[in-house]
Specification:
Helices cover 38% and strands 17% of the residues. It contains twelve helices and twelve strands. Helix 5 packs across helix 6. The chain binds 3-phosphoglyceric acid.
């Protein structure tokens, strides 16, 4: 059996070593395709693989159909919007993610971006503090929970909105539950986005929703760029000169945003929320273990396609 690690954005070396240990201990072969620049390289590498570990790498129908032996794709991370689930199901390929494994890393970055925002992008001017401020967590999953935990350490008042969780469940973790997304945005000066990119959520962060935000608010996006309505974000920022937007995923209009709002807009150059040695090892080794357990025992616990 051949397990391919295909990562345009490579894992830390210790994570690759950990993955190799798991795969070789199981008696399988590990193939590595890192920092590839052409889709054709991925297609070529997938051809002979039985299993693939990826990150945000695009696994579309063409890639899936190019494979002769592929049985499983594991997205070492949370979001699997980069995998064509239908094409995988049609070829009887199991798709999994590794929920929670990189959540702390993303959450730490979200708080780091909040500090960067309130300290005026470290430009030397007098800023403000997070202590006592209201933080709204938009979707209370693995990353949202970690953001709540760390934000409480900063002394923030933490609120959350999640249509898939009961208020009791959220409140049992010491977080105030609100009943609508509008209520979250009108209550909290800080919003941290943790929604996946789905047909319902794409473009859902629009001007009408943002207009609920109180004065001097800050939006942090460590989720996906697709959930933002980019044109309406520009229009909102032009009107609301007190608002800041910091993102870990450069939008299509990154250059325009940088030019128009240099003091109120920031994007990391490449998504780096999960880019820590710890998160790479957690997610990568979990992916390797899930592959071995699937191939040897048929365990489909983390399967995301039907
Ligand atoms: C995720 O969905 O797990 C995060 O967005 C991390 O993505 P990455 O592995 O491409 O850094």
């Amino acid at each position: 059996m051949k397990v391919l690690v295909a990562t345009d954005k490579p894992f830390a070396p210790e994570a690759v070593k950990g993955i190799r240990d798991v795969i070789e201990k199981a008696g399988y072969e590990l193939a590595l395709l890192e920092k590839y620049t052409e889709k054709s390289q991925l297609i070529e590498a997938v051809k002979t693989a039985d299993a693939v570990i990826i990150r945000s790498d695009i696994i579309d129908k063409e890639v899936i159909d190019a494979s002769d032996n592929l049985k499983i794709v594991v997205r070492a991370g949370a979001g699997y919007d980069n995998v064509d689930l239908e094409a995988a199901t049609a070829k009887n390929v199991c798709v999994m993610n590794t929920p929670g494994q990189n959540a702390n890393a993303v959450a730490e970055l979200a708080l780091g971006l909040m500090v960067y925002a309130v300290r005026n992008f470290f430009n030397g001017t007098s800023g403000s503090e997070l202590l006592g401020k209201k933080l709204g967590i938009h979707a209370y999953g693995n990353v949202g929970r970690n953001v709540a935990r760390i934000a409480k350490g900063f002394g923030m008042e933490v609120y959350a909105y999640d249509p898939f969780l009961s208020a009791d469940k959220i409140e049992s973790e010491g977080v105030k539950a609100v009943s609508s997304v509008e209520e979250l945005y009108s209550t909290c000066q800080f919003i941290s986005l943790h929604i996946p990119a789905t047909s319902e959520t794409k473009q859902s962060i629009n001007k009408i929703l943002l207009s609920n935000l109180p004065a001097k608010s800050v939006l942090i996006n460590t989720a996906r760029k697709e959930v933002i309505n980019e044109a309406e974000m520009v229009s909102f920022m032009e009107e609301r000169t007190d608002f800041k937007y910091l993102t870990d995923i450069p939008p299509a209009n990154n250059t325009e945003m940088q030019e128009k709002f240099p003091d109120r807009y920031f994007s990391t150059p490449k998504k780096m929320g999960a880019q820590t040695a710890e998160a790479n090892s957690n997610a990568g080794i979990a992916a390797a273990n899930q592959i071995v357990d699937f191939l040897k025992n048929g365990n489909e616990k983390f399967r995301v396609n039907k």
